[in-house]
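User: Earlier you gave me the apo prediction for this protein. Now I'd like the version with S-adenosylmethionine bound, so I can compare the two side by side. Same sequence as before, with the ligand SMILES added.
Assistant: Got it. Here's the input I'm using:
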Amino acid sequence: MRLAVRLLPVVFAAVTVWLVGNQIVQGLQPTPSTVPLALAPWGGPRPRCVVSCGKGARPMRSVTVAAAGSPSDEQFRREGAGEAVGPKPDLILSCPPSHIQRLTEYMASLYPCEILCSRTSGKGSSMVHLLLLRCHGEPASMMQKIASDSHLAWVVQKVYCIDRDEAPQPNIQGVAQSLAKQLRAISLQPRSVEAPVVRLACFPRSQLLELAQLLEANLCEEGSAPCKLSPTGCNTVATAFLVGDLWYTGVSAAFGQNHHMANKRPAGNALSRAYFKLSEALQRAGAYVKVGDLALDAGAAPGGWTQYLSEQGCACVYAVDPAELELIPQRTEDGQPSGSVEHLCATLAEASVQLAERQREGRLPPLDVLTSDMYLGMGRSCSVVRALEEDGALSLLRPGALVVVTLKGTEVRGHSKLRFDAQLAPVVEEFKAICEGVQLFHLMANRERERTLVGFKRGG
Ligand SMILES: C[S@@+](CC[C@H](N)C(=O)[O-])C[C@H]1O[C@@H](n2cnc3c(N)ncnc32)[C@H](O)[C@@H]1O
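And here is the structure of the complex with S-adenosylmethionine:
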């Protein structure tokens, strides 16, 4: 009994450490939104971006992504004192954790910018990833391009625009003064017709209210030009972003989407989200469909890919799917397909027999494009390349024909990304045996366990 009493404090201490360590005791951890990012991301030698976005990573305990050569806090204090130590970001994008690696690859391949690094912030469902970029051109025009990029519309949640020439501030009072100075400068410009209506973008958000009050007080000072703070109807955005011990600021024009981009349906009349998979795959691969091409779209329903192929000028898209197409194919008066889409309401194996027959009879030339977004069911989905061969679709193509295939894995809880990638390796090899110039993408519109292959049929 006496031993048990003596052991009690030890057991209590151990349990407390475990509870705190697992964030079960509330209030003992700092709230995520008030915790500044732990490491400042730029400066020193040019950073190499090392990205990790493992789902199981515990948020905010440590920074999950680090740029090689990240500067020390001391370097940041020097930066605060006015000594430039390396490239500062001018755009910071936020996105869900599932997309940080894809977003990094997308921005690096299609936008003229340097990827400085990425960071994690927040916990659980409110966790966001931040990508810090240094634009090679004008940040405002890049921001506008990002806002109108349909592939980013579901992914990028916010864009923070930093003025790289503004000195970083050590505290929120300094931020309010700096933003007030920048806003006064733009409202006094001779070409500004309207008074700025300003939305405040603040990271972390927990500081927004205090910053708004301080900024309003600064703007009200005697001699200030007219300027109104408002979360809606704004034409200007004032940004404050905390990294390490320092705040970075910037004032920029507000674009159509007001920097709140997430979950906006991209403009246009795309039939399904899948439409953007094909458009992005071709853009990323630098491949395109030529006017007058003949295409076979395997697993076409409801019709997003068929729509895209048709819009690109294909003379005819053979849309193969036992399911109904939402896209209404044109028909002549006697019911024959006309125009650019013919729905073959059959499996790929059955449709390939029909099309091969037409080719044998000289009624159909070899096809220029084959796309497949088929889901073959549990277990078989990754063998889609073999299915295209066995069902006879590949032999319908001319040498050099464009081939785009979605590889779909099964979304099994606990199955790691590494395991999925390992599953894909032999399928990619199968594809390389058939096609050359092969590229593999994890596209913005792909699911977590889904990849897209692009290549050209060998023999061209
Ligand atoms: C994800 S959907 C395709 C979406 C389409 N790409 C779009 O843009 O709207 C997959 C389709 O594959 C079709 N499918 C599955 N196995 C097939 C097969 N063996 N032959 C033809 N279609 C098949 C299914 O009926 C389903 O409509």
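For your comparison, keep in mind: The pocket of S-adenosylmethionine is lined by residues 272, 274-275, 298-305, 320-323, 347-348, 373-376 (CB under 6 Å).
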